[in-house]
């Protein structure tokens, strides 16, 4: 629902609630409570599941994959991920380990109409930067900027996800991870 439509709905609902309660001798405090409930009810449809691109991905995940390096070597990795947040904010932490290496990527993303903006950090390579991209109910794709350049794509459903991270500027070339919900 667009902001203008929500605003109109709130004004109409509030005005109707006020007419009903003011004509019945309701005390001002009670009138405010009733009007507040009416306003919250008018806003609630705006947060329907279709407006939350992160609803399906939030939670804990675990799986495995491959980490490739610019020198041509590859390592099998075990990974865990946690996604937290709301319909407009997503926090993510993906931690992967092999027998000789590890990587921990975290990001804070804000969503507005499917567009993503935010920041990221990778602790092993001590890299930070900005994020921009898109989110849908089954896919997150963003570009990584800063010391490390790259992309991250997460395709997901309620029980599985696939993460693909490609980088430039560091020895790590890419990660491909398949995970299941915990």
Report on the structure:
The protein is built from two helices and ten strands, in the order ααββββββββββ. Helix 1 packs antiparallel against helix 2 (28-43). Residues 1-49 have low confidence and may be disordered. Helices cover 20% and strands 52% of the residues. It starts with a helix and ends with a strand. A hairpin with a 3-residue loop joins strand 9 and strand 10. It is an alpha+beta fold. It has helices spanning 3-22, 28-43; strands spanning 59-69, 74-85, 89-97, 102-112, 115-122, 127-135, 139-146, 149-156, 160-168, 172-181. The chain has two domains: 3-47; 59-181, Calycin beta-barrel core domain (Lipocalin), CATH 2.40.128. The longest helix has 20 residues, at 3-22. A ten-stranded antiparallel barrel has the order 1-2-3-4-5-6-7-8-9-10.
CATH architecture of the largest domain: Beta Barrel
Instruction: Tell the overall outline.
Output: globular
- What is the CA-based Rg, rounded? 22 Å
Total strands? 10
Order of helices and strands: HHEEEEEEEEEE
Which stretches are low in confidence, meaning pLDDT under 50 for 5 or more residues running? 1-49
């Amino acid at each position: 629902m667009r902001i203008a439509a929500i605003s109109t709905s709130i004004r109409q609902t509030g005005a109707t609630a006020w007419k009903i309660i003011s004509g019945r001798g309701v005390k001002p405090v009670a009138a405010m409570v009733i009007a507040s409930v009416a306003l919250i009810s008018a806003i609630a449809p705006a947060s329907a599941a279709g407006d939350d691109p992160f609803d399906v991905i939030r939670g804990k995940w675990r799986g495995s994959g491959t980490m490739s390096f610019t020198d041509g070597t590859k390592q099998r990795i075990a990974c865990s991920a946690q996604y937290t947040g709301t319909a407009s904010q997503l926090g993510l932490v993906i931690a992967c380990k092999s027998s000789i290496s590890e990587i921990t990527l975290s990001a804070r993303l804000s969503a507005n109409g499917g567009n993503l903006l935010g920041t990221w950090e990778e602790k092993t390579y001590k890299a930070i930067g900005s994020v921009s991209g898109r989110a849908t109910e089954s896919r997150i794709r963003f570009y990584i900027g800063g010391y490390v350049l790259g992309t991250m794509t997460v395709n997901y459903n309620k029980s599985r996800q696939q993460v693909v991270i490609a980088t430039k500027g560091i020895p790590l070339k890419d990660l491909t991870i398949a995970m299941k919900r915990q």
